[in-house]
Amino acid sequence: MPYITNTDQQRAEMLNAIGLTAEDLFADIPKELLCGTLNLPDGLSEQQVRTRLAELAAKNYIHLTCFLGGGFYDHFIPSAVYDLAGRSEFYTAYTPYQPEISQGTLQATYEFQSMICRLTDMEAANASMYDGGTALYEAMMMALRLTRRNKIIMDDSLNPIYRVMIQSYTRNLNIELIETTNVEGLANREAILAALDDKTAAVMVQNPNFFGCIDDFSDIAQAAHDKGALLIASCYPIALGILKTPGAMGADIVTGEGQSLGLPMSFGGPYLGFMATRKQYVRQLPGRIVGQTTDKQGRRGFVLTLQTREQHIRRDKATSNICSNEALCALVALIYVSLLGKEGLKQTAQLCADKASYAYQRLTAIPGVRPHFHAKWFFNEFVIDLPHDAADVIAKLIEKGYAAGFPLSRYYKGMDNAILIAVTEKRTKQQIGMLAEELEAIL
Question: What is this structure's pTM?
C-alpha cells in the first residue's frame, strides 16, 4: 500500500469514496462536546521530532544533589545491571507457567529467592512483591492467618508511608491495630511489652527504622514468642551488608523495599518488595515460590512449586490475590547484588554509614543545628533540628541545587523543625561540605 500523506485533497477523496462529509463522522457526538478545529501544526521529520522532544524533556531535568531517604535511596547502579537485565530473553519474558520453556526465568527467580534468604538469614522467600509497603501488609495478614488472632502492634518508628498503607488496607477488617510512640527514635519497648497479650498476632518493627536509628529486636522477638505472637521485621537490604540480620534477632517474617538494589528513584516505581520467612510458615507465604527439582534424567530443573494465588488454587484457600511478581525488578536486584558480591555489599554499606557519620558531624557543628534524637547508632540516615521551619529551609536549599532531606512534620506532630537526611555511597565529601556551607549561609 503506498504511503499516503495527510493532505486536505486526500481527505476529501476518502470521504467522497464513502459518501460522507467530515461532519457526518461526528454526528453522534453532542455539539457542546465538540472541540472544533484543532489547528495542529504540520508534521515533522524524525530528526525534528527528536530535537523537539529533547527540548521538552530538558525542561523537566533539574539537577539536584540528593540527600533524600525515607525508604528510597540514591545508590550507584553499575552499567552492567541494565545491560544484562535488558537482554530480550529477560525483558520480554512472561509468567513462567510452562517450566519446559521457562528455565532461564525460573532459575533467575530461584536465585533471587536464595539471595533474599541469605541477606535476611531466613529459610524461604517468595518470588517478590509489589513494594516494601504491600510486602509488610501481606506479612501482617500472614501472621493473622498463622496465629488465628486479630491484634497487631506496630511502633511509629516504622516507615509512616507503610503505616498509612496498612491503615488503609485494614480499615474495613476486624483487626485491632495498636500503634506505640517511639522513645528517642527507637521502638517503645515499655509500650510494646505492655500491649502484648494472648490476642496479639504480631509485633511489627523496622531496622534501621524510619529515622535511621539502628536497634536489636532480639528481646522483643523473645517476648512476642512467649505470648505466642510473631515478630515481623522490615529492613533495608543494603544495611544488611554490615548489620545483624533479622533472622539472628529472632524475626519470623522479614520484608523490605528492594529499590536500593539497582533500581533508580523514578517517580515512585516500579519498585520491588521482598518477603522471607521460616520454613515452618512457608505454606502461608503469599504469591508464588520457585523450587529446584530434577527431571527423569536426573538433570537439575526449576518449577513453580508453591502457588497460593487465587488463579492457581481454590479462591477461598488463596493467601493473596497478587497477580504479578515484579519479576524484572527482582532480576535487576539479583544482578546488582551478584555484581557487588559479598565484600562489595559490605563495602557499600560501610561507605553509607561512614559518610552519614561525617555528614552528621559537619551539620551538627553548624550553630543552631542539633541532633533531634540521642540514639547511639544510626546507619545512613539521621534526624537534625533546625532553628527554623524545616520545609522552608529545604525549599531554599532546592534553589541552591540540593534535595536536602525530608521534612518530618508531614507525618510527626511537633517535628516542624526536624529534617531527615540520607547519605549514600554516591555522596562525596565535597558535596557534603557544600551542603553544610549552604545550610549555614541560609540559617
Answer: 0.86
